[in-house]
Model the fold of this input.
Amino acid sequence: MTDQKEMIISELQKNGKRITDQRRILLDVILEGKWSSCREI
Done:
């Protein structure tokens, strides 16, 4: 999962997005994949 996470972070940075703590947490939750709807995220 770390490689995928780092790839996503790299793409966000290329597009000028800041990598905040909130974005890291959200990315961890999304990559974990233990949710069935956007509301659960």
Residues 2-32 form one domain. Residues 2-14 form the longest helix (13 residues). The helical segments are 2-14, 21-32.
